[in-house]
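On clarity, I found the account of how folds are encoded harder to follow than it need be. Since the whole study asks how a given chain folds, the encoding of that fold should be made plain. For the editor and my fellow referees, an illustration may be useful. An entry of this sort, consisting of the sequence and the corresponding backbone structure tokens, reads as follows:

:::
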Amino acid sequence: MFSLLPQAALSPLANPPPHRLSLAPRGPRRRSSVVVGALMSESPQKPADVSAPNICFPILVNGCTGKMGKAVAETALSAGLQLVPVSFSSLEKPGRTLKVGNTEIQIHGPSERESVLSSVSHEFPNVVVVDYTVPDAVNANVELYCKLGLPFVMGTTGGDRHMLYRTVQDANVYAVISPQMGKQVVAFIAAMEIMADQFPGAFSGYKLEAMESHQASKLDTSGTAKAVISCFQKLGVSFDMKQIKQIRDPKKQLEMVGVPEEHLSGHAFHLYHLTSPDETVSFEFQHNVCGRSIYAEGSIDAAVFLFKKVQSKAEQRIYDMIDVLREGNMR
């Protein structure tokens, strides 16, 4: 059996401290253990100051009715960007509005999407769209953005990703597409990819256990977990994505995972535990996020990055968050 204990301080010690989230069986002390971890606690109510001097352009956040979309809209205002007072919902509720800061946002239903977005593209020719909707809407939204020639940041996970990329390539539209918008988490994934490329097979024969815990409203398996596990696969680990332990039950998140109660509605806890064939060596890679501001800030950085690419008429059209990281100048 394995235990999932609450998260506290992380330490690269052979004997892990108490209250540390763990998927590892408690074995003999002779086992060597390496822990790589990070805990990021963010407050969704108070977006960080991510002001971008001398840059102001219109930004439309599709999905403002959701907590992630609203956090992005708040961060856009904090950054001094012009928030387009329009968003969309999967429900047809005429006359619905949502206030973000001092901006009153009109919420439109699915039947109005194309006509409203077409009007937005004419009234705000430099607009950048940031999408935080739902997995089932991803491909239809991308088709519409491409049809209207709107540059966009896709923060929503799920959908048919192969079709998504093909649609954008065929339309030659500018886009940042990433399953993970948190800059520091992206940097961790990039480091994993470098290790996988330079040391393929380094963990051949090792057993992997993987756990991801998110708020109950997240419907799909973590794209971040899949990205990290794909690196472990290149490193020689045999693992089926269906083996990911996906936790959405708030009671388990409180008692087993150690998610703070105030962040049950917005968190991302990940743990990857590797054990050698003879069970004498173990490695743990862990990254935990409480709140949404890390993603909101990354999304705004991605939007600023994309706006600059559009204005400079860059030859490359499709980017990811690693491209954003490499560009630098992030807040």
Remarks:
- The radius of gyration is 21 Å.
- The CA atoms of residues 95 and 253 lie 38 Å apart.
- Residues 293-311 form the longest helix (19 residues).
- Residues 1-34, 41-53 have pLDDT under 50 and may be disordered.
